[in-house]
TrEMBL record:
It comes from Cellulosimicrobium arenosum. Pfam families: Epimerase. Residues 3-235 form the NAD-dependent epimerase/dehydratase domain. This is SDR family oxidoreductase.
Length: 347
């Protein structure tokens, strides 16, 4: 299939694109390039990379594709808080614009990268795909708005699917330090301690970035009727764990002791998710990774690639720091989250 992947130059995209290519698909990327140069090892190359903002995409940009994989977003809570209005603009209105444009261009499939954070404060039980939405942040709200905006577009010619990913972990050529397993492991490597930012009690569903890619591939290749206007929680039941358990695993594997950051308190983002549906509907989706294996992977890559604290805690790997640095240097307008001088999509 010929697939347009937007957000291809981010953390998940840099793993998903080679994974799709290895499965025989022809990939074209589209990304505004906020994290260009923020590399962890050799950058991904060998495919057409277009530069542009999803909010400016026109039908002629999407003609001839069999599917759009929509990853581009303000990708976490701290970034979302920076400017909630722009977060809705990119993550909700931008996502709906991409879906509408894909449909107008005759693209039959649309895979939306949603998030388990739309369930928010989920209460005591495990929440399945038909569970209520209680997002507690603008980022979570933006994913709810996007799904609700895209779903009415579904018809005989257009099949959107919503992949509600758990919190990702694992190595990527565009590593992120601001997600929990990566953060704890990288800090163990660079600082010699497993430093918790909360009291460690919240539950978090986790999934390896390569298993996310596996889920997208399974949806892409599934018969249309099994994924048409369907949501899937993407993760593994075994990997719904308390943050303190992750800290203990990192400590055990790396030998670094656990410590608490000053002011570490409770975290309201506490939810447990039911991952049964994806395995039942998509039997080709077989997650391969475990959290301990992911900790080993990051540790080994940190060693091979010489990870240092200044990089791990700075703009190279922390999305918020990078956006703040782009704004401070005058390259990005924080009120609109637009790069200066950026125009229509270019090859
Ligand atoms: N990483 C996770 O733990 C996780 C979990 C659940 C859902 N998700 C979702 O998966 C997607 C990818 O996440 P990620 O971790 O790779 O994020 P990321 O921040 O590493 O990458 C996002 C990419 O999108 C690009 N982008 C942002 N706004 C754009 C715009 N307006 N036009 C064009 N490109 C734009 C950025 O330049 C970047 O390359 C996001 O939608 C995110 O919300 C991620």
């Amino acid at each position: 299939m010929r697939v347009l992947v937007d957000g291809d130059r981010g953390y998940i995209g840099a793993v998903l694109v080679p994974y799709f290519q290895a499965a025989g698909h022809d990939v074209v990327g589209l990304d505004v390039g906020w994290y260009d140069g923020c590399d962890f090892g050799p950058p991904v190359s060998g495919y057409e990379q277009r530069t542009g903002d999803i909010r400016d995409v026109r039908p002629q940009d999407l003609e001839g594709f069999d599917a759009v994989v929509h990853l581009a977003a303000i990708s976490n809570d701290p970034l979302g808080h920076l400017n909630p209005g722009s977060t809705y603009d990119v993550n909700a209105h931008g996502a709906v614009h991409m879906a509408r444009t894909a449909k107008a261009a005759g693209v039959p499939r649309f895979l939306f990268s949603s998030s388990c954070s739309l369930y928010g404060a989920g209460g005591d039980g495990k929440v399945a795909e038909d569970g209520a939405f209680h997002p507690v942040t603008p980022y979570g709200e933006s994913k709810v708005m996007a799904e609700r905006g895209i779903s009415p577009l579904a018809d005989d010619t257009f099949s959107p699917s919503y992949l509600r990913n758990a919190t990702a972990y694992g190595s990527s050529p565009r590593l992120r330090a601001d997600i929990v397993v990566n953060n704890l492991t990288g800090t163990a490597f660079t600082r010699g301690e497993v430093r918790l930012q909360s009291d460690g009690s919240p539950w978090r569903p986790l999934v390896h970035v390569e298993d996310i890619s596996r889920a997208f591939l399974a949806v892409l290749e599934a018969p249309r009727e099994s994924v048409h206007d369907q949501a899937f929680n993407v993760g593994r039941d075994e990997d719904v764990v308390q943050i303190r358990t992750i800290a203990e695993q990192v400590s055990e594997i790396t030998g670094a002791p656990v410590s608490f950051a000053p002011g570490a308190g409770p975290d309201t983002r506490d939810y447990q998710v039911d991952f049964a549906k994806i395995g039942e509907v998509l039997p080709t989706f077989e997650p391969r990774w475990t959290v301990p294996a992911g900790i080993h992977e990051i540790w080994e890559h940190a060693n091979e690639r010489g990870l240092i604290a200044a990089d791990f805690e700075g703009e190279r790997f922390v999305r918020l720091r990078r956006i703040e640095a782009l704004a401070a240097s005058g390259r990005l307008d924080l009120s609109t989250l637009r790069l200066h001088g950026e125009g229509a999509v270019t090859s």
